[in-house]
Amino acid sequence: MGANVVFGAVAAVVTAEYHRQNPQGRSVSLSSHYSSSSAQDDSTGTEGYGATWTNAHDQRRVTNSPERTRRTENNALDIVPEDCSMMDFPTSATAAAAPHRDDPEEEEDEEDLREEAEWELDEELEGHGLYRGSYRRLVLLYSLVPLTFAVTFALLATLPPLLYPLTVPWPYPTAPYLPHPLPELLLSVSLFSLAHALREPLFSFLDFLPISTILATTTHTLLALLLQLVALPILQLQPALVTVSDPSFRSVWWLALGAAAAEAAVALRQGYAARALYRDVLVSVSVHRDGADADPEAGSAHKLEARLVTPGSDSVVELFERREVEDDVYTHGRSRSHSHSQSQPFSEEEAAAAGERQPLLSKTNSKDTVGAAGANGARENGAQSALRMQVEDDLEELLALRAREELEEAYGMPVIRIPVFLLCLQRVNALFLTLGTALLLSNAYLHSTLAPLHFPATVPPTTSSLSNALQNSNPTAPTNLPLALLLPLCWATHTALALAHTPPLLRRIGVPALVYATALVSLGAFFAGVGLWEGLS
């Protein structure tokens, strides 16, 4: 109360002095310690603590107020809780001490350190047979591959009706319940399935030869091409006007699309099966920086750690540190546990509870044996079931480990590390390569003497009508030269690409280089086939 009386007296004296010097009655701006306003403006002469007065010709401030003393750099007085908002503005001292977080060089160094830590973490995880990532995310990313193939397949299926309309009615007889292009699709899928089913027996039959891989790959490629050619006489395609406006072009187009769809189905099934092998070894890892014991002058001396969350539990396990743990810790721990197990053996009840089988002859009396026979039998059956399940799980893990090692040996890298873009491009490459090969071989076949002759008349032709039909339906004489040139060329191309996918060559070439080279070959074959059918003119 005494402070209030003193403050009131001081305010009265200041007011009287002001009225004596300023009789016109100008306003006075007073603020006290009890004011709740936090907006401070130097131009009005109002401060958050104490009182000031202003004049139109002379503006002065109280220089020894407690507020100004509290704002000095030495900070002699503590901050008042009501004025905490005033102290949020940075001063020269705090601005000099604050780090510059928007420095591009520091951000680049931070990014390099994080990338280095992630690379070392991946190396450490792969050394333990683990991989960073989520199985659900892995499957979702791989789902882009069938989606890309489906979109490309749909675009190619609508391409002939839009760009190459038919000039004549459909000449081939079809059943009403099996319209075009269902016969072409079913036939091509069946022939591809036959070629794929003969692959394993063929490789097993030629396994005893020194060059079994090369010979088996070459033979299987030739078999697949011949089966693709067999579909043409089965459909009874006739050499009329071998152009894109001819119905035979539509049949060949859908034959190729069916074979490509069957090949894509097999490849996608293998791709999903390969990713399922990594289900149990994918872990979630978070990299963080611990700067508590780091040297401020050396940014790379921060302690980088990674915490691993296992898929089967919610516990967080310390897995990797930049500071390596001594190897003798594991050995010392095992020796201690081994000595502890030797000093404290299990009893029969504890061994049965832990899954150990009890001996057939136990040193118990006959009464206890007869009384506990049922319990021991049930306990032994449970232990045997648990042991059998554990053995089966171990065998499955070993088989998955062996399959992963074989895949990594074939590709030269883990399958899940292959970019999804390359996998999508590989499916598109296979589609264009199959389509281009079918167009090339079918055009050469229809110009050869192996193709059936086309007779527009239904009556048996005479000699004159036969010559007229040949001149009208096929202006040029049939020749086997295109087929003799294109069949070995396609065979050599498919064989080279198939051999490039074998483990010795694939590791040397690399997956990206092989995919891009296949893209060039497949696009070249596709445009060559369309051009041979006069579709580019």
TrEMBL record:
Compositionally biased spans, kind Acidic residues: 104-114
Polar residues bias spans: 39-56
Keyword Transmembrane helix: yes
Biased composition range(s): Low complexity: 27-38, 371-383
Biased composition (Basic and acidic residues): 57-73
Lineage top rank: taxon: Eukaryota
Transmembrane domains' residue ranges: 138-157, 205-231, 513-533
UniProt keywords, alphabetically: Membrane, Transmembrane, Transmembrane helix
Chain residue ranges for the region called Disordered: 21-114, 328-384
Coiled coil: none
UniProt protein name: Uncharacterized protein
